[in-house]
Amino acid sequence: MNFDNIFDKFRGYADVAMDKVGKASKTAASKTENVVSRAKIRFSINEANDKIDEIYKLMGKRLYEQYLEDLITDPDFVDQCKKIDELNKDIDELNSELTDLRAVVKCEYCGVYNKIESTFCSKCGAKLTKTQEPESSNDDGEEVIEVDIAED
Ligand SMILES: [Zn+2]
After folding, report:
1. 135 Cα–ligand 1 center, Å
2. Rounded distance, CA 128 to CA 114, Å?
3. What pLDDT score does 63 carry?
4. Domain boundaries along the sequence of the chain
């Protein structure tokens, strides 16, 4: 962060000034203590900033809920809330696309995609093996039929 740099620079100048006055015959131990306590302070600052962000997030959610209840009049807030509406719509569409893709089984022989509930391929009639690669992203708990294929 920029403020940290500025602060460090200021500290640096202060240290130089102290050297000039002749008070800076610090021992290595006290310098280490100084570094440690500065790290602790920075950690506390970051922690506080994280908490503030969390509160902002909750406030934003509350604001959006109020928008849904038609309680928001500020046009800027309404605009932002409408953007959230749009994004939620996008997420819904993407989720249904994901479900469509998941609810499909590829024929090992001809490569045609069939409905997950099909037993035989609609094109070549081969028996479908219902094996799906595990999802790396969040699983929404949808039932997936997995068949282990024995390796030779
Ligand atoms: Zn087929």
Report:
1. 24
2. 9
3. 96
4. 105-152
